[in-house]
Amino acid sequence: MFKRTGAPTLFSYISMRWFRFMPSMIGIICFHILWPLMGSGPVFKKYANELTEPCSRNWWTNILFINNWLLLPDMCLVHTWFMSADFQLHILSFFAILALSKTWSRGFGVVLCTSLILCGIAIPSLVNYKTNGPPMPMPFEEPDLDQFYRDLNT
């Protein structure tokens, strides 16, 4: 993973994380796609097909960890959006760690990390301001606002 200089290569940094997550993700996707074949009943097939249909179309987005960029109805395994966000932030953190290491100047690393923190605060604030969204996540009684919140945050 590390060269002689002590700095990790980008490929090894990403691939080690990817190979750590992939076996369980592939197993879950396979189980989810095959789930309609494992049961029976008057309404089982209907609901099972509704849940597994997005996985049949978009399973590859989970493999590449980009499924959090899809809208909620198109997501395969909605609960794994966090894994994709975590993986993407992990890639971004590589550059922050590299900037803070001895390879580049420490001042540049501090400026980069401070900029990333400020962007992490400013971007969600601007999105909420522009879309007239609520300042905090909360369940909504109105279906339009509930769908808006789901599409915006998942």
UniProtKB/TrEMBL annotation:
Keywords on this record? Answer: Membrane, Transmembrane, Transmembrane helix
TM helices/strands, residue ranges: 21-38, 78-100, 107-127
Question: Do you know which InterPro entries this protein is assigned to?
Answer: O2_lipid_transport_reg (IPR052728)
Protein's recorded name: Acyltransferase 3 domain-containing protein
